[in-house]
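Hi C.,

You asked whether I'd gotten around to modeling the 134-residue construct. I have! Everything is below, sequence then structure, no commentary in between.
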Amino acid sequence: MSILSKIFGKIFPSANAAPAPAPTAAPAAPAPTVAPASVPTAAQPVPMQAVNVEALLNDMASKSSESLNWRTSIVDLMKLLGLDSSLNERKELAKELGYTADTSDSAAMNIWLHRQVMNKLAANGGKVPADLKD
């Protein structure tokens, strides 16, 4: 399971939901030419329930024994969600999200990661404050 999928599983009520994967290969059997509207396809992913990300994370933070600044820190965000926030995990997340800069500059990578995670949450039904995304 990808790290981004783990993040999505912690944020969205449909915990098994994940960002729609990119199609990797054509199906073995011919696909029908018209898919019924009620059946999701790769081009029409299952919509996730809208979630107020800020309210959810603020609530989680208020119940945490640690003082975590999820609004600016990818490390704190991952800790708040109960995920491994080690440098190796963040480098793996950077790879998943297409980070092309130097991963040894962890400060720049962390800022980029936080922004990208917030963008992905917003793109998949999360209500994310405007100042936390592009």
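If it helps when you're writing up: Helices lie at 3-11, 53-63, 74-80, 87-97, 106-123.

Thanks,
B.
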